What does this fold into?
Amino acid sequence: MPQTRFTKEFQDEAVRLALTSGRSRRAIAADLGVGLSTLRHWIDRRREREIDAPPEERQEDMAAELKRLRRENEILRQEREILKKANGFFRQGGKSMKFQFIDVAKESFPVTRLCQTLGVSQSGYFAWRSRPASPRQREDLVLLAHIRSAFTLSHETYGSPRMTRELQDEGLTVGRRRTARLMRENGLKARQKRRFKRTTDSHHAFPIAPNLLEQDFSAERPNQKWAADISYLWTNEGWLSLAVILDLFARRVVGWAVSDSLHTELALEALRKALAIRRPGEGLTHHADRGSQYCSTAYQAELRKHGIRISMSGTGNCFDNAVVETFFKTLKSELVWRTVFQTRAEAKKAIGRYIDGFYNPVRRHSTLDYVSPVQFERLAE
It folds into this structure.
């Protein structure tokens, strides 16, 4: 094929492919329908032009090439982001799911790029959009609106079991599988818990009480069994200690206190708050670990003054106080690990909002048949 039949643009593109595609020149020449010697000639001539060209032209060529590379990089970035975001839709399969993803993602990416990346036609997408939604799809849209609202109110902590119960209590007819599908397809994933490290100081000379609870965390009424423990939260001012007391009947936090240091007064403050709020009668058992704060003379005296039975965990057995451990894991996964506290005062306010504004009155607990501690106590009255 005579060389004169190829335009300058064609020759430049052939040279670019030969220099940047990573494939052999013989393969490039075969793909373009030119001789290998012809392609080599174009490459040599391009290099001669670059050497002989004045600095201004070389700078223009470099600028054009840089612009092209940036455009290609942007296309690759978009395709990578599209595939990353579409991962959940791909698992479901089918063109309908891809079209749904395109409809959601078109605000962030061009429709043309979305269709090319997902391997569907633009005409097919627009035809899908023009079809009227089925009754099932309209129901999904309504359910999804409720799910998004409840997910936000739960601080993005509800998975499909709690979410299903939330929807059902709002009068909506929905099963867990449908809720899980809608949450999965729309990227609504509950926060995952991390491992929790205990820091109990049990090396002391205070007397140890027997384990009266023996991992029986059930209670028939409020103020029958309380469990207490201390954990630590990091702020940019340093560590903040948090002491809590839970009523095991409804898993309700009945007393809590924070301090910038770990001492007996911190645990006593939480206890005194719980006593003032609940005013328990006879028969209350108070369970804690063997930490020095709970074994101290002052703490033990406060319990005995109110006629409270004293129970303590076995040596190094975190399962003996599992309910409070679970509370701390929940608090950290749903609040602490998602927040950077600048000051201890800021952390204290956030903890108060979480416990008194969400955990006790709102958050659904699986052990309470997916109602909140406050609701559970009211139902038991």
